[in-house]
Amino acid sequence: MDVNVVLTYVAFFALAGLTLLSALAVVTLRNLLRSALALVVTFIGVAGIYLLLQAEFIAAVQVLLYVGAVTVLILFAIMLTERLMEARLRQFTGKWWLAAPLVVLVLASIVVSLLGAVWVERPKEALPPEPVASLGEILMTRYALPFEIASVLLLVAMVGAIVVAWPIRDRLKVVEEMEERVARAKAGWKERSGSPKDETVEVAR
Amino acid sequence: MTIPLEYFLILASVLFCLGMYGALARKNAVGILMGIELMLNAVNINLVAFWRYGVVSEFTGQVFALFAITVAAAEAAVGLALVIAIFRSRRTVNADEVDLLKW
């Protein structure tokens, strides 16, 4: 066996193990801050898998966008809602025991159908001489319209995120009023007395 | 003679299912979003792997993965803004406690 082939396999299994172990940590750790840090390791492992597949540009984008931006966003969100990352709070739903076999079932069905499928055998083609340059050219010619739409989407998402997260002083009061109305309407709904007491119940019906 | 395509696909499906478990079992909305990010990453591995083992000169899989990463970034930004807005008004980010619209 060629040394290069052995090294490729070693790299694949090391990266896959790193990715899956850290992903397992992401979904099972009780402290959310730690699982966000494990998420960084997962993203770096996936970037390594992209490099193994010779998609250098995607690997760079992965490191810049996921490791750089998305993780920072997640860490900010965790720290702004700090009360909830405390370890003693319950982090998992009461139905996690139901989720685990369901997920295993999905995994089993995917893997069985994947191994049973007949893939069209084609030898791995050689890359074009300058892959990143050709990718940029294709993005600017054939995929120019989706590219522009993606930039509009990013702009809209940016504005939307700012608007949604903008602090409104009265929002707490508004929500409390709404909750009160909903509670009253629920009580009226349960009674089914046929004589609505106030206009809230009327609205609910 | 290199790694078969199935290795990458199995890696991606295991990663996807781990993300799905996280999205289903977590109570915290940020935890759910982290699970969704894992699922999106798994799909991107699939796309890039199919590109490498398919028609390489077309770059379709890479372009698709790029757009998926873009949409995932937008989703993360808006989703986390929503989480912060919900925390501000309700003092909780637990997905089962935000039930104002649920009867």
Mind explaining what this structure looks like?
The complex is a heterodimer of chains A (205) and B (103). With 205 residues, chain A is an all-alpha fold. Chain A is 74% helix and 0% strand. In chain A, helix 1 (3-28) runs antiparallel to helix 2 (32-52) and helix 2 (32-52) runs antiparallel to helix 3 (56-80). The longest helix of chain A is centred in the first third of the chain and has 26 residues, at 3-28. Chain A is extended, with a radius of gyration of 25 Å. With 103 residues, chain B is mainly α. Helices cover 74% and strands 0% of the residues of chain B. Chain B has 3 helices and no strands. In chain B, helix 1 (5-25) runs antiparallel to helix 2 (29-52) and helix 2 (29-52) runs antiparallel to helix 3 (60-90). The longest helix of chain B is centred in the C-terminal third of the chain and has 31 residues, at 60-90.
The number of helical elements of chain A comes to 8
- From the N-terminal CA to the C-terminal CA of chain A, the straight-line distance is 75 Å
SSE sequence of chain A, one letter per element = HHHHHHHH
β-strand amount of chain B: under 5%
Poorly predicted spans of chain A: 201-205
Q: What would the average pLDDT of chain A be, to the nearest integer?
A: 84
- Spans of at least 5 consecutive residues with low confidence of chain B: none
Radius of gyration of chain B: 17 Å
What would the keywords be for this entry?
heterodimer; A: 205 residues; mainly alpha; 8 helices; disordered C terminus; B: 103 residues
Tell me the layout of helices and strands.
The complex is a heterodimer of chains A (205) and B (103).
Chain A: H1 3-28, H2 32-52, H3 56-80, H4 96-116, H5 131-140, H6 144-165, H7 171-191, H8 199-204
Chain B: H1 5-25, H2 29-52, H3 60-90
Helix pairs in contact in B: 1-2, 2-3
